[in-house]
Amino acid sequence: MQYLLGVDLGTSGTKTVLFDTEGKALASKTIEYPLYQEKNGWAEQDPNDWYQATIEGIKSVLAQSKIDAKDVLALAIAGQMHGLVMLDEKDAVLRKAILWCDSRTGAQCDEITQLVGKKRLIEINANPALSGFTAPKILWVREHEKDLYDKCRTMLLPKDYVRFKLTGVKAQEISDASGTNLLDITNRVWSDEILEKLNIDKSLLPPLIESQAIAGRITAEIAALTGLKEGTIVAGGAGDNAAAALGTGVCKEGDCFVTLGTSGVVFAHTTKPSIDPLGRVHTFCAAVPNSWTAMSCTLAAGLSLRWMRDEFWSFEKDKCEKEGLEVYNLMTDSASKIPSGSDGLLYLPYLMGERSPVLDPEARGVFFGLSARHTKAHLTRAVLEGITLSQRHNLEVLNEMGIVPTTLTACGGGGASPMWRQMIANILKVKVNTIASKEGPALGAAILAGVASGVFASVEEGCQKLVTLGTTETLPQQSECQRYDEIYHLYASLYPLMRPAFHKLASLRNFLDEGKKEILDVSSVEFERFGRVISGIDTAKVIEALDKLPCPEASVVYEPSDPLLENCGVFEDLQNRVFGGLPIEMGYCSGHNKLLNCLEYHRNSELNIAATDAYLMVAPMTAIKDGIIDTEAVETFFVPKGTAVLFYETTLHYAPCHKDEKDGFRVCVVLPKGTNTARPQTLEKDEEVGCLTHNNKWLYAHKDSPEGKAQVTHGLLIGKNLSL
């Protein structure tokens, strides 16, 4: 009898499985290791832990099975993707590996997008710059740990590092390399264009190999440590999800699976690159030659359930371990007694930020609708539902790309649970199958090892011979599908509503960690609560006109309409593209001012175009209580020269303040024509409380301001009178 080894190098631990050449698992060993989280959103591991777990795992399965190690033909590793392993000139590890679920690299993602161009990056790499990917990690180390970066001579992905330790040969396998942001996905080569624009030395990246290729052979040193025969073949292996695809038989056009492990993935196999132009899901090279995959990734799927287990079910976990039971079964049994929708409790699974489809490293986990009636069982069901709703969110993006499966093969921890499989069928509205083998990525790795050693002529043949569908088949329940449709619509609406708040929270975390408060640019996500930057306007023409208009040295001037501005060449563009054809007027507000004085609300939206660097002090309408607003609700944002900012109708904002003592500000103000009209005679003062005065706008003035002293407003701005 001959044998194949599959190693699944995961985030929680490494699982080593010994298979015979018919796919039967003879022995397995899982060895866990720690996850280091020095700061909120950080995630690191020691590469030596992976290596030691692999060595001990191989030793263990050989000892358990009592086979002759000479009969092991080959092994391959399936590995967690995107992690950055850095080696020095002596091949020593320079620092802990930054993992796929680490979200520290938001600024570096912005830098990559700026240097390469978002559209161009997706054209080459099929994916936008994401905090989980490898390239942003490289830039982060270069910026924050330059001494280590300068010592680096090789960069490897987690499983490629362990394979190097086993064989002494450095190589990057193609499916895993797809998630670096550095690969030309269509041509399956490193992208010289991306590397050049990011100033990353190509010599740091080892040669690329296909998944089923022979990457090297077990060295004498490793043979002595593990018991394997020296010279045993080691295949290229694959990224964890690419390997899991093979382990579930997904290797040809139209095949799809869903896995709910540490991360959650909906995965489809294609024979041509299928790319989402918005980059919400990923296109990678498949572990099958000349094939690709379209896949999503929810960062904290099973991780959310593990967090729930450790933080809410720790007593039961300890008790179950003593009794030889599985606490997850107790958790799902408890959750199954709660009706769908968890009695109005929803969970957003963004514990580590999120990748698909919202692409936001600053997103965070949320229990929405929590009340005193909710129990631990409710929270557990809400977590299970939130994880599964996130898979539907991703599946709908794949549907837009023309990938519309009617059947999904379920694997991972979630696929093993009948209760969770039924939830998948009901929420995703598809038939759910299982496979007989529970090894997933490890079996996929073994198939690749079989191809490398000649047991199978192709990956497809290996899948056909080794993967057997399970006997269970779960169908959607129509009544539950209808309930989950309503639940999903609310779930999908929550992230867009909370996106600016997530980024406001990120600023708060930075303030709490660093003690520094940063004034953000109006292009930041936080500003989305108040308005947005409008691109494509020829602001140079507006600036040229504003430079010819008055700018007082000790006061502020405001003119609602000026012929010079209205004839500068952008009037028609603004009227049609920004205001939807409404009649508009273009005026200006210029001068010297650093005090808040008052906030103003216009019934219609307003566009400001900054001709100088300036600041805006803004507040949300939701901060108003009975015509009173506190200056504590006011936030300051920087507006760079040449920026056009559209305020929402529900925004309170104040005319800009100037940036420097010596300079005034010049701002073009664009409003729907007739905004400053006389107050309608038929309107009583209390018919639109806090939102209308005689000139169709409402001023909230501080008592110390000229407006407050002149009593031109009923709105009261309390708190200190803010200044720059």
Written description of the protein model:
By secondary structure, the chain is α+β, with helices and mostly antiparallel strands. Strands 1, 2, 3, 5, 13, 14 and 15 form a seven-stranded mixed sheet that branches. The relative contact order is 0.08.
Note the topology.
Elements: E1 3-9, E2 13-20, E3 25-32, E4 44-45, H1 47-65, E5 72-79, E6 85-87, E7 97-98, H2 106-116, H3 118-125, H4 134-144, H5 146-151, E8 154-156, H6 158-167, E9 172-173, H7 174-177, E10 183-184, E11 189-190, H8 192-198, E12 208-209, E13 214-217, H9 220-226, E14 233-235, E15 238-239, H10 240-247, E16 256-260, E17 264-270, E18 282-285, E19 292-295, H11 302-312, H12 314-323, H13 327-336, E20 346-348, E21 366-368, H14 376-400, E22 407-411, H15 412-415, H16 418-428, E23 431-435, H17 441-452, H18 459-466, E24 469-474, H19 478-514, E25 520-521, E26 531-533, H20 539-546, E27 556-559, H21 563-566, H22 571-578, E28 584-591, E29 598-602, E30 606-610, E31 614-620, E32 628-630, E33 635-639, E34 644-647, E35 651-653, E36 657-658, E37 665-672, E38 697-702, H23 706-709, E39 715-718
Parallel strand pairs: 1-5, 5-14, 5-15, 9-12, 16-22, 22-23, 25-33, 32-39, 38-39
Antiparallel strand pairs: 1-2, 2-3, 4-7, 6-8, 10-11, 13-14, 16-17, 17-19, 18-19, 20-21, 23-24, 26-34, 27-28, 28-37, 29-38, 30-34, 30-37, 31-33, 31-35, 31-36
Helix pairs in contact: 1-6, 2-3, 2-4, 10-17, 11-14, 13-14, 14-16, 16-19, 17-18
